Amino acid sequence: MCFLSLVSAVTLLLSLTAASPTPDDCVHLNRTLSAEGLHVIFGKWILHEAYALSSHDISSQILKTINSSQIEFVRTENNHTVIFKHAIMRDETCTRYSVNFTVVGNKIQHSPTINSTYESHFLETCDGCLLMHYTFDRSDGNKDIYLLFYRKAAMLPQTGQEMDKRQARCLGFLHPPDFTYNQAELCPEKSNDKETKEAQQ
Asked: Any signal peptide, and if so, which residues (predicted)?
């Protein structure tokens, strides 16, 4: 009986965690990281879940082709610039690139062309976690929006997955994630794979 009671309690807890968040829940789950709190973004992060919203399906399709994705935010002597390094594994090919983002308040921005802009802000989340809301305003007037859940660790407990889904729902991402990390191989630390570096801004 004790075992059955324990199973019932765990099942109830998981069902409550998976339930749709209330407006009051979303107030606590949608807190944007302040400019003073941006120091927590630095270091290496593994992408665990990703959502895409856009006027076309290309964004979500791109996410579905990824095996693994790892990023790193690097400090610079200039407090107004952050180096963003990205390593993506697709099939057996690793692609790396780096971009200089400009810090604007509690956001980071990058403009690869005159009429297009990447902008990211971050939301408060658990320790050892990073939640990035990423927007790409295209030169053709379309907009792609991504919600990216990162962790320091490769493994993610089920409770963490359910919390990610609750935050996603609060932010209007009601569909299942377009990418979920399944412990696939990450890009190696040192490699001669393809690398693209964008010019300093």
From this structure: 1-19
The two structure tokens encoding residue 198: 């964008």
Does CATH number 2.40.128.20 belong to domain 2-197?
yes
- Give residue 10's identity as a one-letter amino acid code: V
CA distance 22 to 81: 37
Among 28, 13, 18, 14, CA closest to 123: 28
Q: How many CB atoms lie within 10 A of CB 189?
A: 7
Q: How far apart are CA 101 and CA 74, in angstroms?
A: 10
Query: CB count, 10 Å around CB of 168?
Result: 22
Q: 30: helix, coil or strand?
A: coil
Count of CA atoms in the C-beta half-sphere (13 A) of 28:
7
Per-residue pLDDT tens over the stretch 58-81: 888 989 999 999 999 999 998 899
Amino acid at 199: A
